Amino acid sequence: MARFAGKVILISGAARGQGAAEARLLVAEGAHVIMGDVLEAEGQALARELGDAAQFLRLDVTEEADWARAVAAAEARGKLTGLVNNAGIYVPKLMMETDAALFERHTRINQFGCFLGMKAVVPAMEKAGGGSIVNISSTAGLR
């Protein structure tokens, strides 16, 4: 069954872990996947593993220009119809042990990066006639 045949989906944080699993599943279901991450070696290796249905590009989710390049790459493959905002970092410290710079980095990646991703893809999805955005979070945020 190819539930995602003909779909172009952009995944942030796709080089390893959950993002890589999402990429594998979507490719297996027929999608063309644009995988973005700052972990270039791992992302390139995964793209080679997945073949022609996947493309890797460097994506720092805190940079609007990187998002613009990712959307352009997706649109070069067809209509961008999906975004999985998967990129994120975990800071296993109590508030009083976390310095301001680390908190700012965490917030820029996990929240601001998610905002930039949605802002970047919505015009392309509107042009495509619609799409879906999945924002991933963690139960660590409930602690």
Structure description:
With 143 residues, this protein is α/β, with parallel strands linked by helices. It has a five-stranded parallel sheet, with helices on both faces. Helix 3 runs parallel beside helix 4. The protein has a single domain (8-137), classed as NAD(P)-binding Rossmann-like Domain (Rossmann fold, 3-Layer(aba) Sandwich). The protein is built from four helices and five strands; from the N terminus they run E-H-E-H-E-H-E-H-E.
**Overall 3D geometry?**
globular
Domains, number? 1
Q: What's the CATH superfamily, by name?
A: NAD(P)-binding Rossmann-like Domain
- Straight-line N-to-C gap: 39 Å
Secondary structure: helix percent:
40-55%
Mean pLDDT: 96
Order of helices and strands: EHEHEHEHE
* Number of H/I helices: 4
Structural Rg: 15 Å
**What is the number of beta strands?**
5
Unreliable runs, pLDDT <50, ≥5 residues? none
CATH topology: Rossmann fold
**CATH-derived architecture:** 3-Layer(aba) Sandwich
Proportion of residues in β-strands: 15-25%
CATH class: Alpha Beta
Largest sheet: 5 strands, parallel
Question: What's the arrangement of strands in the largest beta sheet?
Answer: 3-2-1-4-5
Structural class: alpha/beta
